[in-house]
Design brief:
single chain; 197 residues; alpha/beta; five-stranded mixed sheet; 7 helices
Length: 197
């Protein structure tokens, strides 16, 4: 779930698109993305989850999305869905999210999420680096994952799972050139070159 309720944007959620593509390629899993950018109602999410009954629910969160992400996780927890938080806010504030989910991913998600899914049946994440998780109600804080994936090892994002027609319509960066030109976002690097504190 990509719970962008607060604002409409022409920028598709590249992170979840890359995760979906990598998981499909690596594990051949069935995956879907619930993107609320253009359908901003909890009911849509909950109806989708009731209908599709996922084994695992991953929720992306940044600072703006955190309250909505937690509301979704709490609903999923009440419906016995194995729930994982990821994204920048989960990475920097795992203690804030672990009470609402089974697992919190800290850092790049591709390798970590693959390991979580491989271990899903036995529900033991002792060997999975980069996660906080629960064992018998106790929070376990695994060591950070220092393995970073090369961008050349990630397939292009799974745009077919996103409402790209709407993203193309709302992507306004080319308006200065011509209002009939369409484009979309791509990612050519990860991380930040600056030294912010």
């Amino acid at each position: 779930v990509f719970p962008r309720f607060k604002y409409m944007s022409g920028d598709p959620p590249m992170g979840v698109g890359y995760l979906a593509a990598y998981l499909k390629k690596t594990l051949q899993v069935d995956i879907s993305i619930i993107d609320t950018t253009f359908t901003r109602y909890f009911k849509n999410i909950f109806d989708n989850l009731k209908e599709n009954k996922p084994d695992i629910l991953g929720i992306y969160t940044d600072g703006i999305m955190a309250p909505d992400a937690i509301a979704i996780a709490d609903w999923a927890k009440n419906h016995k869905i194995y729930t994982i938080f990821g994204g920048p806010q989960a990475t920097v504030s795992p203690e804030f999210f672990i009470a609402h989910a089974d697992v919190v991913v800290r850092g790049e998600g591709e390798l970590i999420l693959t390991d979580i899914i491989r271990n899903y049946g036995r529900k033991d994440l002792s060997d999975v680096l980069g996660v906080w998780w629960k064992r018998d109600g106790e929070i376990v804080k695994n060591a950070p994952n220092q393995n970073f994936i090369g961008l050349d090892d990630i397939p292009f994002p799974e745009r077919a799972l996103l409402p790209m027609d709407k993203y193309l319509y709302y992507w306004s960066y080319l308006d200065a050139l011509d209002t009939k030109k369409y484009g979309t976002t791509m990612m050519v690097s990860r991380g930040c070159p600056f030294s912010c504190t």
